[in-house]
Design a protein that fits this description.
CATH class: Alpha Beta
Largest sheet: 8 strands, parallel
Number of domains: 1
Strand content: 5-15%
Low-confidence stretches: none
Radius of gyration: 23 Å
Number of helices: 14
CATH architecture: Alpha-Beta Barrel
CATH topology: TIM Barrel
């Protein structure tokens, strides 16, 4: 019997690399709405980071320290160049600037409490200083941003240091955003804004256009604080080598370099994913600039952007940083993206609240909406009660304590009695990309890509 040939329908399931599902969704959303996406948190793309480096622990050629008997010092001094009163910290792990407005007053108080208990500093962020924050923080850094929202000379004098913000790692070259749903009556009053209206901060300072003008601004800040307070200058990581040199030229005591893994409360996704360079590359450029100017030990370097673990801290210090600043990790320690929140002595599920804003625990980046299911990035009077200062401070203190324990454990394993004795010689890279960015040899070789064989 004659059989007819069977014709199979040719269905291809091969996804295009250039036009994958994520790209197709982006194009369709852009076509449907004519608007770019605004979101919070940091870059989601895979970037070279500190996980691409490993330590060379002590063995025969190095002598390790016994963790239970031999001390490893963590004390940190910041602002020793010009300030009469440098910042003295018990640990080299600080809390990055995050504004009241972006975060609730309860969260700001929790940050201050935890920082004080751990002997470190916290930072105001945009929009001014809250009373809760000042009272709970033994060491508080006051930010001077392009917006000047809430900027108050009296609060400058009440601070322990001033941080002049030129740029942020998640959005170098771009200003901040605070959407109307987070501009509460209190936020509006502090920032002299209409309540409930979107606030877009300036991308550059209104009263200077370059490093010579910045030098004048730093001089003004020194004069109103009687030269007591250290002056930090914070830059988003882009042309880091030149930016650090210019910041030193302007008279900064401390340079803060924020890599593109840094977070934000609200900005365009195209900024978060496509502007700036990874923290790993920025650290090396910053240290090169300080070495070039013979300013190592005279001007301190604080590194931020994607610092998550004690190992990350140790690697940043080994590459030449004097301290680190953490933002996103701090929020996660408080409960950000958690499935539950702790209120009135019991745990409650946040699943329904995530669903209501089109998110899920572990995947939420809806900080800009003000509808944070766990009460962190909100100004809502009900939602903000989902995080109490006491509970938040306890969790954050545990996180910072763990990071510091990991840091000292690694330092001892490398034979160091002080975490600030960690050095580049203690590190190697696992990938060619990380080796080239960090200026470190590829593991098992003496080869640093770009520096010959």
């Amino acid at each position: 019997m004659e059989t007819k040939p069977v014709h199979f329908k040719n269905v291809s399931r091969e996804e295009s690399y250039g036009y994958d599902r994520k790209t197709l969704d982006y194009i369709r959303n852009a076509a449907a709405h004519g608007l770019y996406e605004i979101r919070g948190m940091g870059a989601k793309r895979k970037l070279p980071n500190f996980d691409d480096l490993v330590f060379l622990g002590a063995s025969m050629s190095r002598y390790p320290l016994e963790g239970y008997r031999e001390k490893c010092l963590t004390k940190t001094l910041l602002g020793t160049r010009f300030a009469k009163k440098p910042i003295e910290l018990e640990i080299p792990i600080t809390i990055a600037g995050m504004s009241f407005g972006s975060l609730s007053a309860n969260v700001k108080e929790a940050l201050g409490r935890a920082a004080t208990e751990m002997g470190t500093s916290t930072t105001t962020g945009d929009g001014g200083m809250t009373q809760e924050e000042r009272q709970s923080s033994k060491t508080l850094i006051y930010q001077c941003l392009p917006s000047r929202y809430g900027f108050n000379p009296d609060d400058v004098r009440r601070a322990d240091a001033i941080e002049v913000v030129i740029g942020q790692g998640a959005k170098p070259g771009g200003g901040g955003m605070l959407l109307g749903q987070k501009v509460s009556p209190r936020v509006a009053g502090m920032r002299t804004l209409p309540e409930g209206i979107d606030q877009r901060s300036a991308c550059r300072h209104p009263d200077w256009t370059g490093p010579d003008d910045l030098a004048i601004k730093i001089q003004e800040l020194r004069e109103i604080t009687d030269w007591e307070k250290p002056i930090y200058v914070k830059v988003g990581a882009t042309r880091t080598f030149h930016d650090v040199k210019l910041a030193v030229h302007s008279g900064a005591d401390v340079i803060v370099v924020d890599g593109m893994q840094g977070g934000t409360a609200a900005t365009q996704t195209c900024f978060i994913e496509h502007i700036g360079i990874p923290t790993l590359a920025a650290v090396r450029q910053a240290v090169n600039a300080l070495e070039d100017l013979d300013m190592i030990g005279k001007v301190q370097l604080v590194v931020s952007g994607g610092i998550r673990t004690g190992a990350d801290v140790a690697k940043a210090l080994a590459m030449g940083a004097d301290a680190v600043a953490i933002g996103q990790g701090v929020l996660v320690a408080l409960g950000c993206n958690g499935e539950t929140y702790y209120q009135n002595g019991t745990l409650h599920s946040a699943e329904a609240d995530y669903t209501a804003i089109g998110a899920a625990a572990g995947f939420c980046h809806h900080c800009h909406t003000g509808k944070c299911p766990v009460g962190i990035t909100t100004q809502d009077a009900i939602l903000e009660q989902r995080l109490s200062p006491e509970v938040g401070a306890k969790h954050l203190r545990n996180y910072l304590k763990t990071l510091n324990m990991e840091l000292t454990t690694i330092a001892r394993a490398c034979g160091k009695q002080n975490v600030h004795h960690l050095e580049r010689e203690d590190l190697v890279a696992l990938t060619i990309e990380a080796a080239a960015m960090a200026g470190l040899p590829l593991a098992g070789t003496n080869w640093i890509p770009g520096q010959g064989f």
